[in-house]
Amino acid sequence: MGNNNSKPDLERLFEQNRQWIRSVTSADPDYFSRLVDQQNPEYLWIGCSDSRVPANQIVGLKPGEVFVHRNIANIVVHTDFNALSVIQFAIDRLKVKHIIVVGHYGCSGIAAAMNNTRIGIADNWIRHIKDVHDKHYHELCSIEEENARLDRLCELNVLEQVINIGQTNIVQDAWANGQTISIHGCIYRLHDGLLKDLHTSISNPQELHDRYRAQLAS
Question: Which end of the chain is more exposed for a tag (fewer CB within 10 A), N or C?
Fold first, then answer.
């Protein structure tokens, strides 16, 4: 019965797929033949799974121009072999030059961590955000307005993930071998679509060291 109920919704998706194909090929008959050989991205995008934050559309890139990894609250930890595998593939095989961590204001995963909201098995995942919160506890507690405090935690989470990526053996080895890789932190505003640079870019171990020390000092 469940499958029968879902069939009309799936049929709608298939029909919209066919409409999309007709639209794309009418404007560009060679779109798909060219796309086959177009996997040559310069960017690895690590973002949130939130359906309102589509990577390609936000920055105006075509399919094949950005390699994408997404999870709840755009987290990169050293025990997540999914994220690490994506990073290694992007660096070693695709030779990306930029890794961009993109958070977004109002992230529900970060809000759940900040407010100690129980979700379920995802509680174990967002425990990493609670660690970010605890690390920056004094700064966050100095922000009285709740939405502003949440926004700041979203920013701090991005910064922590930039540092986490820079500390991976994957990036460290690439830098040691002379590969050009920069890691950036950005955050997206849902209410107006603006992507904000958090000025957290690092391109070598010294910048990583300086950024980490500055973060601890703050």
Answer: N
Residues annotated as catalytic are 48, 50, 52, 104, 107
pLDDT digits (tens, 9 = 90+) for 135-165: 999 999 999 999 999 999 999 999 999 999 9
Cα–Cα distance for residue pair 187/171, rounded to 1 Å: 22
**CB contact set of 50 (below 8 Å; sequence gap of 6+):** 104, 107, 108
C-beta separation of 64 from 38 below 8 A: yes
Q: Which pLDDT score is estimated for 6?
A: 61
Residues 180, 30: Cα–Cα separation, whole Å = 33
DSSP one-letter string for 118-149 = --STHHHHHHHHHHHHHHTHHHHHT--SHHHH
In contact, 100 and 42? CB cutoff 8 Å? no
Length, in residues, of the chain:
218
Q: Which two tokens stand for residue 119?
A: 């979700």
Structure tokens at 10: 């799936």
- Say yes or no to pLDDT of 28 above 60: yes
